Amino acid sequence: MVAKHPTTFLASIDIGTNSVLLLIAQWDGQHLQPITEMFRVTRLGERFQQSGQIGEAAIRRTESVLKEYRKVIQAAGVKRIWCTATQIFRVAANGKVVAEHLGQIIGAPVTILSETAEAALTFLGALDSVKNNHATYWAIDIGGGSTEVGLGSYDQLQLTRSFPQGGVSLLETVMREEQLTTKEIEAIQNIMHQYWQQLPSKPYPIIGIGGTPTTLAALHQQLAVYNFEKIDGYRLQLHQIKEMFTHLNALPLKARRKLPGMAEGRADVILPATVVLQSFMEYVGTTELIVSARGLRYGILLWHLKENRWPVQL
Questions:
Q1: Cα 96 vs. chain centroid, distance in angstroms?
Q2: 30 pLDDT band (50/70/90 cuts)?
Q3: CA-wise closest residue to 117 among 268, 264, 14, 220
Q4: 21-26: Cβ within 8 A, 24+ apart
Q5: In which domain, by residue range, is 218 found?
Q6: What pLDDT is stored for residue 1 in this prediction?
Q7: Chain-centre distance of CA 71, in angstroms?
Q8: CA angle 245-61-32, nearest 5°?
Q9: What does DSSP assign to residue 233?
Q10: 83 shares its domain with 199
Q11: What does the pLDDT read at residue 265?
Q12: Residue 266's pLDDT band (boundaries 50, 70, 90)?
């Protein structure tokens, strides 16, 4: 248990299939106040479908980012670091070895989360983005290699599911060119629908977590510079998301990269990931998305700080 002291600075690092995220936050005994947020695309899942392993080039990119993060953490005077790893580490033949190696780089153990733990902790973190977190919400996080879905409130976690498809895996297995064809869009919808059928179709509000919703929020506002306050809690309607997808899919990759609000490394994966998001909203019957700029890196801190009250096994 971390001491509840106003000057306690904590850090969490989320090492995913597509990106590595850093949060440095201050804990005042009741709330997490973000101090530093950093995001880098390292694409650990690159060519995994062909090799079954995390590649050397991707490992080197991730090492570089973690060395950068370590300097930032040390300069901030952080008292405790938690590092988590997700889908690519669960499925890659060398996942455990790579996690141990990266832990040595950052100076803290890297915990490979189970599908259930990842989904639950992601949901816990996202609930920090809404004012009434005692109401019932859906939450969806479209990662690089998996998609996590949760239903519940801060008081009761009703269900969590982790499905083994994400933006990068769909990009590499379905998408052949710079734009998605009608057949490819239908293929992604069909793949995801088989997973959605495992969920109840209930039109609760949806919280969207991770790079896809935050990038869509930034694009919709044409934010030239990432702004946490303008993104966290931003609301997008389903018809707006569909209009944005149509526009993005009509552009060549080079043009998408230059759009105000397009996060680095997102211009290709944004297309299949947005199809996943649309299909989920249509399945549960909710037409509004609440964007969360929080998620797993917040959830892991809250889980420790709240004395592990959520039913999660690390």
A1: 21
A2: low
A3: 14
A4: 21/296, 21/297, 22/69, 22/72, 22/73, 22/297, 23/297, 23/298, 23/301, 24/72, 24/73, 24/76, 24/78, 25/298, 25/301
A5: 116-292
A6: 43
A7: 23
A8: 70
A9: T
A10: no
A11: 86
A12: very high
Please provide the average confidence, as pLDDT, over all residues in the chain. 92
* pLDDT band with cut points at 50, 70 and 90 for residue 313: confident
Indicate which CATH number applies to the domain containing 128. 3.30.420.150
Instruction: Check whether residue 82 and residue 134 sit in a common domain.
Output: no
Cα 285 to Cα 137, 166, 220: the distances in Å are 13, 21, 22
Nearest to 174 by CA among 273, 266, 250: 273
Minimal CA–CA distance to 208: which of 260, 254, 264, 277? 277
Q: Which two tokens stand for residue 86?
A: 């997700």
Both 77 and 90 in one domain: the answer is yes
Look at the chain and report how many structural domains it folds into.
2
Position 215 confidence tier, pLDDT thresholds 50, 70, 90: very high
